[in-house]
Specification:
The chain is 26% helix and 40% strand. The protein is α+β, with helices and mostly antiparallel strands.
């Protein structure tokens, strides 16, 4: 975080807060709004095991803006009502940030997600890991150019309808 000023860090933290608030509220359009309008905006979810083995295996691969929009449609319209619903609570902590080029930052954030399944109402650990983000900051604010979720484990205990 050396060399990144406090105002930039505030924008980055506010973006992460909007991201997790949208997911915890099941607001998929709000989730989409945290991503850049660039066509190369992406959301990828993989495992630490795949990363350490240098394997290009993903649990989710939304590698462009069109696929991000498709994710919103799948979750809100196509999959709606066909999976056991659950609520999530995300906890995040930024651990690193460095400027890459003018207005683009590489940010590492630890995350922990707890879910509460509708069928039993008992909170349980859902996923832990790290977000590896490229965040662009423009006159329109901060947005994710890319978000790579790296889960600590290879297994998520239930159907992963919502992004992590």
């Amino acid at each position: 975080m050396k060399g990144v000023n406090g105002a930039i860090l505030e924008q980055i933290d506010a973006l992460q807060a909007r991201y997790v608030a949208a997911l915890d509220a099941k607001n998929m359009n709000g989730w989409l709004d945290t991503f850049s309008e660039n066509e190369d905006a992406s959301y990828i979810c993989t495992t630490a095991e795949s990363v350490s083995a240098n394997l290009p295996i993903s649990l989710v691969l939304d590698d462009n803006r069109a696929r991000l929009k498709d994710r919103v449609i799948y979750v809100t319209k196509i999959w709606s009502g066909i999976f056991a619903d659950y609520n999530t609570r995300h906890f995040v902590q930024r651990t690193a940030c460095q400027a890459l080029e003018d207005g683009l930052y590489e940010v590492t954030t630890n995350y922990l997600v707890v879910n509460t399944p509708s069928e039993n109402g008992r909170a349980e650990l859902y996923s832990t890991g790290v977000y590896l983000d490229h965040i662009e900051i423009t006159e329109h604010g901060a947005r994710f150019r890319s978000k790579k979720v790296v889960t600590d484990t290879a297994v998520v205990e239930r159907f992963m309808a919502y992004p992590i």
